[in-house]
């Protein structure tokens, strides 16, 4: 059994980052709401996240620490303040928030938590409340210029608290702090590697699926390709892959994707459902409504395909962790951002049970698992493309004509990136068709046509992203080409927003 670190979420915007940092230590971890978790024998330690609430407010998130037994605990920010308050110490509201860089003024390196951490080390703060008095039996480990308690330990127990955020990169020695806790204090073994993940997952899938048949939605994307190869290793010919043309794919993508799977040993069937999706989407322009329609029609198509194969019990999907995190508030107080078609967009009643072997992994981890499965680079290197496809990049109701325009624009942009060697430097790129017309002039004639926006982002896992500084000359060439070649477009703009506060897709 794999050792596990449990991260209890109090709603911090950094909770996912804690998970990433722990996994970078090759230790498996899971995020659960502070109010709903289970302590199983594989849990080696618990991290209490930060959170937007104040422990001083009535009804703020609270939990019974007894439930954690004798396990090592690390409270970060809100988590640290909560431990102090519950043990009779003082947390005080201060007049101003401390946000940003600070430096550790004192460090008692006798304590394992801050071993190897230097005096003066830069840490990242984000709090309004301050721990002003430690309870009895709490030992001070560190302070900064502005706060008396930056880190503490409960005497005789492996329970620690820190006011700063070790998970953000601005805390320059943050990784060491987390390693000290996870590896030295919790004793978690660092053996969570892609190879082990494949081995364990295939074994579990064999047990879970037995001789059952599975239909899997295969999209040509990274996630479903990796999911397909994992399930294929477990059940072989009982896996039936279905690639649906929902009429919202990229230009010539249907044929291209089907071709790219030749030689991988998978049983792949292409299903043309274009007109069905267009019919169902007619007149819908609300983003969440469109996602839900697309999610439902996908499932209907999968269901029908399953019926024609007979005795199929399961639907396989390439759902990954961020799809789950953003679609449903699994994370306690975090809010729903958008209903990813394959999670929040699923209909309430389904005939098939869902199997999603990647739903605890981040994108870059999925790619590493794909490498371990020896999936070719041209599949693993593809930019992510959302299941609802161009449907959520047309910012109004969907018509085949709008899809045609956007496909042509997108193809010029993506091919341009490939031709000029920029594709691999970008994490994801695409074009949006805006619901506005603008005036232009072409060959002495007035035009009144569509505006498109181009977007290219850099990211690691899609949870945060920054816009890419594509060369002006490149953008100029692409803009010219689009306006000259795509009938119906007379203006091109470039999106320079980061995530947060924007998201990658516009809908
Ligand atoms: N056209 C499609 N046909 C069949 N299944 C699809 C299609 N598009 C999406 N899906 C299903 O929905 C899941 C989620 O889509 P998503 O785009 O997040 O993942 P992906 O396409 O596998 O990978 P990537 O994020 O790299 O595009 C897929 O893993 C797949 O199971
Ligand atoms: O399969 C999907 N179904 C969806 O409904 C969906 N919405 C967003 N995405 C993709 O998720 C990543 C993060 O997107 P956002 O920053 O727009 O939330 C980006 O990679 C998006 O392309 C989706 N993928
Ligand atoms: N980042 C945090 O956990 C902040 C905790 C608490 N809301 C404070 O302002 O002090
Ligand atoms: Mg995709």
Automatic annotation (TrEMBL):
Pathway terms, separated by semicolons: Purine metabolism; GMP biosynthesis; GMP from XMP (L-Gln route): step 1/1
One Gene Ontology term of the molecular function aspect: GMP synthase activity
The protein, known as: GMP synthase [glutamine-hydrolyzing]
Keywords: ATP-binding, Glutamine amidotransferase, GMP biosynthesis, Ligase, Nucleotide-binding, Purine biosynthesis
Enzyme Commission number, as recorded: 6.3.5.2
General function of this protein: Catalyzes the synthesis of GMP from XMP.
Gene name tied to this protein: guaA
Segments crossing the lipid bilayer: none
Source species of the chain: Ekhidna lutea
Keyword Nucleus in annotation: no
Active site positions, chain numbering: 77 (nucleophile), 165, 167
NCBIfam families associated with the record: guaA_Cterm, guaA_Nterm, PRK00074.1
GO CC, alphabetical: cytosol
Superkingdom to which the source organism belongs: Bacteria
Binding site for ATP: 219-225
Subunit structure: Homodimer.
Enzyme class, broadest EC rank: ligase
Catalytic activity: XMP + L-glutamine + ATP + H2O = GMP + L-glutamate + AMP + diphosphate + 2 H(+)
GMPS ATP-PPase domain sequence ranges: 192-382
